Amino acid sequence: MSPDLLMLLVFGAAMLLGVPVAFALGLGGAAGIVVGLSPEMLATLGTNTYNSIAKYPLIAIPLFILTGLIFERAGVAASLVRFAQALIGPRHGGLGLVVVLVCLIMGGMSGSGPADAAAVAMVMLPSMTRAGYPKPFSAALIASASSTAILIPPSIALILYSIVVPGVDLRALFAAGLFPGILAGLSLLLPVWWLARRNGWEDPKQGERPPLKESFIRALPALFAPVLILGGLRSGLFTPTEAAVVAVTYGLLVGIFVYRQLSLKDVWRLLGEAGMVSGVVMIIISLAGIFAWAGTTLGTFNHLAQAMLSLSDNGWVLLMLIMVLVLLAGMLLDAISIYLIITPILIPLMQHFGWNPVWFGILLAMNIAIGQFTPPVAINLMVTTQIAGIRLEKTFGWALFFMLTMLSALVLVMLFPGIALWLPERLGFVVGAW
């Protein structure tokens, strides 16, 4: 048996046996090293795991995780919901529109879909239930809208992509994700409004419209967070990693002194929670380094790329096949694992067809975002259904419906790369192409 095949079989078998993805990646890489190189090369395991996480940009990941937790617990979601209700007013589908708008804004703070799903669901689910929305619909809508956090900067997934793909400017990725993220959110608005109107959900005569001025003032500190992060990156005031430090500091100031929802005891608890979540992420990244090193050294990734090229040499056909593959992977794995497993295989294909790496990274992120609320795994959906107190399978129909609507946004970005690339080019960031 070839080392390539053995490495992939060990990884696949470990996953099927329920081994955590981090350890499955490490075992697969180790098996490939033993058979394809030599047992003595196992001495590189420590070096590879260390080198995988000893990268300056990765410091931003635990910091943005902490930022998301701070804003989630600081009462930011409630202030944004009230402001969005003041803007939209009582109407059929109004609360659904509020969900999408708030998720887009929250995505500009946390970069994490599950965190946004939890924060928005806690605030919005009771109101939507009282207005007549079915709980499965509400849970599926919040799960799908919160998935845009993977696109709206700062995005933890895009940080990881910039590490895996050499030479990609993270600032360009952040800027490129803004319009596709908004487009993905907007793709949900019309179906939500139509369904609410058709089913008579949310009687406009019974709703109240909060005072706009008061709601805006209350939400202003939260609204300023994305402006601070993106404005600082654009002006060159700080790097993306430094932006994470600024975001944490700003979140603490807002949570403690403005909204007054955080105490020092809460901050200590959040630091511990962020440390545990970050630890899981870093273990995946470190052990994936073994898999990546083995696959690169053995030529496994190039062999897989050549096998995909043998299916078709038409760039559009192969791009569609890749999108289907990533969508299926998104239904089973988390975004971090997908980037670490699939991206090294796709780099030779990007080089072969001359696909713009920034545009391609956004396509991957949009596809993974859809996977976050598409069964069977659907991590965002798990969060919202748990808060709603309903079984996951009750939301499958609505989740598939929203998947189709968000796929339309993905197709648009695929056909018109300028949707993603216009803003980073306009801002003067490096948008390279192979």
TrEMBL record:
Which parts pass through the membrane?
Answer: 56-81, 93-111, 140-164, 170-195, 216-237, 243-262, 274-296, 316-346, 358-378, 398-423
Protein keywords: Cell inner membrane, Cell membrane, Membrane, Transmembrane, Transmembrane helix, Transport
**Major place of residence:** membrane
One GO location term (cellular component): plasma membrane
Signal peptide, first to last residue: none
Q: Which family does it belong to?
A: Belongs to the TRAP transporter large permease family.
Q: What is this protein called?
A: TRAP transporter large permease protein
Q: Name one Pfam family in it.
A: DctM
